[in-house]
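Regression test case RT-17, inverse folding.

Input:
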């Protein structure tokens, strides 16, 4: 017995014509989204409902997925606004098949199936590859700080937690004594068991705040202790990594920058490859020598995973959203989020995600100075990728002027060799493309209305960022099919 769904027929909602699709132009984005969703593997979402055949019929998963993707494409992620658009907007109405899912249903669908929706990113990316929109000749990496669904004024330091805990404990104790005295007075006046013995509202408020602060304190201390153990365990690995870097510094420049070790020949560009990506970095709680959180260690009451981050406009409570972008059509080939502000530790995890998503190794990769480290250069090279990473902040308008320089000496370190590499005409040309590859997608995404994440918690935020990157690629794919004759996604896949 299979699950029964509410009727869904976007092409024919009336007994007689017209079809709702007749209300839209042939090359309309809504038509393309419907075609694309029809070709995606939604088995994980369907299996959720197949496990429980009882209850009211849910909205059809294909409709809900198409509705969410189209909404993000046009910059309408709010579930309440999506519900309203199914009444007021023809395209939304067509996609919804002339139904009007409640905003709670839309929000619940996104929450329950966020993991499955995140996996659709790779499916759309593979479709872009099949269309020839991804070449992997040159990819560029960058990140942007995006506000969390939380106020920075709701963050509290460990020192402030201790101060407020002591103050609130004293106030609670005082209010308890006052409440006991009031109860005794009222018992004398009204008799025991009579009304008037409830705790004061102010006492309940302060007790609740005290409990919340104590919970955050315990979480902060536990994380600090865990990090202290992890740091001790990682010391040996860090020592090994430093030894590798030191060894590479003693190799000739041509061997370091151009040729990989003989026993680590990289796969040729475009060759299928499978790897387990490294995890994204996590913000480390400042820890004192005794393993306890420092006075300035913070937690946010609204979104405990978010962190205070510095941007060009000041400080925000947010996340660090990363994207690797292919040069050819500005397709996002990897997207992920962390709560760590510095960028350097994001390079290898994002490169691994690019290789895993595309099942191929890019030829060249560029990034700004925030991503430079000698270890990143070595590890990118071990993956068969030619890295172009700035060693210092470049002047606005492009990289330093290319000049002919002599090769770095045998004793030069990797930083000097990279600086020399970027000074060559070829290095300057490649790096000058970085900004025009990776920065426009961020601008296009923000122009569609992304100013802050809707969801809270880093796992949910990662899913939301993947959904945003997916719709960016979907728009690029739609644009690539518009100049010629109308071609549906079914035809593209069959080609």
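Golden output:
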């Amino acid at each position: 017995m299979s699950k029964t769904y509410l009727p869904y027929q976007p092409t024919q909602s009336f007994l007689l014509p017209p079809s709702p699709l007749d209300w839209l132009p042939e090359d309309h984005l809504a038509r393309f989204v419907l075609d694309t969703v029809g070709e995606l593997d939604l088995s994980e979402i369907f299996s959720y409902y197949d496990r429980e055949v009882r209850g009211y019929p849910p909205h059809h998963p294909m409709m809900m997925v198409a509705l969410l993707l189209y909404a993000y494409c046009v910059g309408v992620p709010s579930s309440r606004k999506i519900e309203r658009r199914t009444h007021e907007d023809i395209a939304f109405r067509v996609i919804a098949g002339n139904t009007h899912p409640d905003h709670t249903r839309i929000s619940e669908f996104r929450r329950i199936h966020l993991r499955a929706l995140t996996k659709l990113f790779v499916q759309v990316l593979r479709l872009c590859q099949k269309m020839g929109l991804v070449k992997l000749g040159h990819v560029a990496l960058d990140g942007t700080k995006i506000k969390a669904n939380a106020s920075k004024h709701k963050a509290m330091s460990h020192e402030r937690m201790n101060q407020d805990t002591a103050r609130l404990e004293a106030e609670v104790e005082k209010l308890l004594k006052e409440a006991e005295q009031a109860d005794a007075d009222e018992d004398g006046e009204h008799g025991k068991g009579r009304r008037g013995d409830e705790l004061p509202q102010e006492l309940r408020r302060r007790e609740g705040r005290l409990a919340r602060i104590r919970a955050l304190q315990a979480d902060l201390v536990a994380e600090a202790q865990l990090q202290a153990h992890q740091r001790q365990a990682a010391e040996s690995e860090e020592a090994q990594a430093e030894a590798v870097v030191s060894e590479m510094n003693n190799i000739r420049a041509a061997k370091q920058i151009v040729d990989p070790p003989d026993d680590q020949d990289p796969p040729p560009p475009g060759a299928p490859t499978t790897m387990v990506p490294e995890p994204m970095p996590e913000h480390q709680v400042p820890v004192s020598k005794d393993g306890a959180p420092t006075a300035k260690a913070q937690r946010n009451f609204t979104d405990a995973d978010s962190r205070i981050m510095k941007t060009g406009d000041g400080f925000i409570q947010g996340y660090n959203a990363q994207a690797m972008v292919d040069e050819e059509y500005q397709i996002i080939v990897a997207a992920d989020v962390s709560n760590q502000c510095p960028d350097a530790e994001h390079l290898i995890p994002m490169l691994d995600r690019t290789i895993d998503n595309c099942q191929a190794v890019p030829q060249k990769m560029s990034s700004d100075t925030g991503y430079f480290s000698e270890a990143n250069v070595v590890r990118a090279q071990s993956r068969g990728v030619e890295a172009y990473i700035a060693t210092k902040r470049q002047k606005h308008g492009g990289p330093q002027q290319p000049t002919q320089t002599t090769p770095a000496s045998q004793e030069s370190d990797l930083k000097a060799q990279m600086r020399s590499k970027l000074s060559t005409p070829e290095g300057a040309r490649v790096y000058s493309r970085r900004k025009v590859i990776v920065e426009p997608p961020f601008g296009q995404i923000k122009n569609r209305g992304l100013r802050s994440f809707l969801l809270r918690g880093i796992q949910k935020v990662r899913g939301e960022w993947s959904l945003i990157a997916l719709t960016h690629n979907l728009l690029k794919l739609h644009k690539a099919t518009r100049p010629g004759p109308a071609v549906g996604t079914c035809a593209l896949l069959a080609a």
